[in-house]
């Protein structure tokens, strides 16, 4: 593919910036490896690739590849989760001109690594030919400015995990719309349960709900980024949860999957959770919960929006310092599309949703004893994965955006609404973009 010009990269907010403009973010410099000639495949000699990841027991997965590929061996190095230290370790390595060949990077963090010229454009090594193997929505999450900057590794199409007995206690079935969800929530409160939590300290579920309603907060264009966090879809979601909190329908005193959440869920104090598909493994940690939970499609926003959304997800990306990007790409595709690779990631590393278009994993094709004998992958999650917002695109300061939004949500207790927090966050995020030397403008109606 033709090299994307520096001017266009800067225009879309994904270009190189000086160290001063990046502030505390380490950078390998203003030179892009994607401007250099493509690196040819190794010829004959044995090579070793290094993969930094926070997935548990991931070397056991790589060993399956190693057994069949003696010429290209993969060594896995465990690192802390991305924002818990893993990303800073990667940035520091890139700044030193070092680092691994491959790294686990969240879907939402890909643009931030592009901002520091940290990733190889995999289209230069033939990645586009593999696009038909992947969920098209996930492939869109790694595609920017005509390039591909990571291979989808796992994701989290959303569904609702619920306790049927608690809903039956108030004569309810899993709500099909968010309005029905609120009505069931009122009945559950009278019975002493909450229908769910609302994450005051983590804005990512709110973003997922807004995306389900049809929002697309950021869009890259030739003249810069376009922002619209105050569109009708987002504000309607904010008003809805403002009212849900005001009416006491949701628990805001503790977060999803916290010790307090597990205790409440075990005692019947939490009736359901709308979460990413990876939440099933966490729900299975509820004491005495076997046979007491099921899954259902997440509620929808009336006649608008989408049937589901996605929460979380990672990629296998190839960092700029790799001397063997062709071989690294070959491993990444095997890892994320072969039945052997996917089954091993599920067995050893507990990945969420497989990115492969037609394979969810052998173990996930059977009914679940914990979830009341339900084959919920087939009945709920596969349809959910096909009903997501394809227009949602990540942006270079995603984590800062979520931090700003969460700070605003925390003020709800002192009288600030979620609507106010979203409007204020939009202005603050525009300032963050400009402070990094990025061009951004507000979407015009």
From TrEMBL:
Keywords: Cell membrane, Lipoprotein, Membrane, Palmitate, Signal. Residues 1-26 form the signal peptide. Coiled coil: none annotated. InterPro entries: Bact_solute-bd_prot1 (IPR050490), SBP (IPR006059), TAT_signal (IPR006311). The keyword Cell membrane applies. This is Carbohydrate ABC transporter substrate-binding protein, CUT1 family.
